[in-house]
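Lab manual, section 2.4: Encoding a predicted structure.

Procedure: take the sequence of the chain (96 residues), apply the prediction step described in section 2.3, and record the output as structure tokens. A sample record is shown.
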Amino acid sequence: MRWGQWVTDPRHTHRWKKVRAFMLQKYALCERCGMRCATEVHHIYSPRLYPLKAYDTRELRSLCHDCHTEADRGPVTYRKRADADTESGDSDPPQV
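Recorded output:
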């Protein structure tokens, strides 16, 4: 990754670190297989192409490493979130 890309990539910010930690805490199990602990957060939309969606928790998925590798290769199916219909202000990550 070049310097210019690093500066504009939302994943290299303090805000991203907080959102990532929030996602891994709230969704501790992989949202694809549901069998392993989530260790990575996947952007459904590329944060470089869609920077406004980079921190939107509705567009992020907590995944284990193997499922994240599969998700990066192409479209995958995720499990339905228990709180999908009842997203409230309490479920939002802390604002920076």
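Check your result against the sample. The radius of gyration is 13 Å.
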